[in-house]
Structure formats: C-alpha cells, structure tokens
C-alpha cells in the first residue's frame, strides 16, 4: 500500500483528508484507518472493487467508527440494520449476496 493508493481509495469513499501513516507498511487485506469527508445525506459506501495495474481485483470494505446509528443495509445514518425499512421491501436482497459496485 502506498499513499497514492490510499488517497485513491479514500477519494472513492468521499474526500480524503489524512490517514495513519503506519498503515503504509501494510499489504492488501490489512486494515487501513483514514479520515475521509463524506456527505452524510447520501448512503455511506460499504465496499468498493478496485483493480490493480496488473489486473488483479480486490474488494475494499469500509467500516466506520464513532457513528452510532449507522445502518449497514442501506448506508444511512439514523437507524441500525435491525430497524431498516429495506427489510420490508419485496425486492430486499441480503447484503451478503448484493453485488459490489465498481
Ligand atoms: Zn437502513
């Protein structure tokens, strides 16, 4: 992982601000903690598929800290997944099998 890749990932999530620099020594799959500005009126992204220059695909998953009442089903703030209205829609798809956006 290098700073350019970290900034690329952070900017896919929102607007990259900074990150823990110790994370630059980590490899794919290791947690990376960064500060990113996001529009909380939009659903927060939970995953992103990234393709490396040699064609390998990796899925980057996002975990948010210090955000109580974040729904990991719809990505909105204000409720948790247990109470998400998406559960009551006929076309509800379990997030485990939902396709990862590119
Ligand atoms: Zn929800």
Automatic annotation (TrEMBL):
Sample GO molecular function, one term: nucleic acid binding
Pfam families in UniProt: zf-CCHC_4
Keywords: Metal-binding, Zinc, Zinc-finger
Domain CCHC-type: start-end pairs: 71-84
Transmembrane residue ranges: none
InterPro entries membership: At4g02000-like, Zn_knuckle_CX2CX4HX4C, Znf_CCHC
Keyword Lipoprotein listed: no
UniProt name for this protein: CCHC-type domain-containing protein
């Amino acid at each position: 992982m290098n700073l350019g890749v970290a900034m690329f990932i952070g900017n896919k999530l929102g607007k990259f601000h900074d990150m823990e620099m110790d994370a630059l020594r980590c490899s794919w799959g290791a947690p990376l903690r960064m500060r990113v500005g996001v529009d909380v009126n939009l659903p927060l992204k939970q995953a992103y598929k990234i393709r490396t220059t040699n064609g390998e695909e990796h899925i980057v998953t996002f975990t948010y800290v210090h955000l109580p009442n974040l729904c990991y089903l719809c990505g909105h703030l204000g409720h948790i997944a247990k109470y998400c209205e998406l559960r009551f829609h006929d076309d509800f798809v379990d997030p485990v099998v939902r396709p990862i956006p590119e």
